[in-house]
Amino acid sequence: MSPLKIKKGATSHSAYDLRPTFSDKEEQHTLAVLVENEPGVLARVIGLFSGRGYNIDSLTVAEVDHLGHRSRITIVTTGTPQIINQIKAQLGRIVDVHKVNDLTVEGPSVERELALFKVTGTGDHRIEAIRLADIFRASVVDSTLESFVFEITGTPEKIDAFAELMQPLGLQELARTGVAALSRGGVSAA
């Protein structure tokens, strides 16, 4: 009996081929979760992530419907497509969760973040910090003889770029709100 020959470059499709057929590449996703605005709901959502070892890159939450007592949680997380699908399915099973939308896969969305930067310095560093703030459309919200506090709004990438440029100019503190996101167009998410 002759052995089975497979042409070079061809792949075998056997029932015994146990190699995974899914992607193991990690991706960042923005999830919009509409929940009941009640004590303990945020803790249950966060507990889902911490209990399973999932990381949260950004988290924002606020009440969006006063009459219906509903809040919107925006979570930015990273994982393989399988992990992201698991997260969405598990979020959907929480009793107080009304809707889970993955803004990353549902089409174009708008993401913004607010950040405050405290930059200390004198002389040329001070002048350069103001010049860069102007380029990035950051506002001066506090000023002393030794420091500035800049306020900037934009994409997370814009905030990161501004932070990188402010570092050598005397960046002392940074506070970020986390991502707020909405789907673009007429489609409504959570």
What can you see in these coordinates?
The chain has 190 residues and is an alpha+beta fold. The protein folds into two domains: 27-102, 2-Layer Sandwich (Alpha-Beta Plaits); 109-182, ACT-like. Chain A, domain 2 (Alpha-Beta Plaits, 2-Layer Sandwich), CATH 3.30.70.1150. Helices cover 25% and strands 37% of the residues. The chain contains four helices and nine strands. The protein has helices spanning 41-52, 81-92, 124-135, 156-166; strands at 27-36, 56-65, 70-79, 97-102, 109-120, 139-143, 147-154, 171-176, 180-183. The strands form two sheets. Strands 5, 6, 7, 8 and 9 form a five-stranded antiparallel sheet that branches. Strands 2-3-1-4 form a four-stranded antiparallel sheet. Strand 2 and strand 3 (70-79) form a beta hairpin. The radius of gyration is 23 Å and the shape is elongated. The termini are far apart. 21% of the residues are buried.
Defining key terms:
about 190 residues; alpha+beta; Alpha-Beta Plaits; 2 domains; 5-stranded antiparallel sheet; disordered N terminus
Helix content: 10-25%
Helix and strand sequence: EHEEHEEHEEHEE
Radius of gyration: 23 Å
Low-confidence stretches: 1-14
Helix-strand makeup class: alpha+beta
Question: How many β strands by DSSP?
Answer: 9
Overall morphology? elongated
Give the rounded overall mean pLDDT: 88
CATH homologous superfamily label of the largest domain = ACT domain
Distance between the termini: 62 Å
Beta-strand content estimate? 35-45%
* Total count of helical runs of at least 4 residues: 4
CATH class group of the largest domain: Alpha Beta
Main sheet? Answer: 5 strands, antiparallel
The CATH architecture of the largest domain comes to 2-Layer Sandwich
According to CATH, the fold-level topology of the largest domain is: Alpha-Beta Plaits
Oligomer: single chain
The figure for the number of domains is: 2
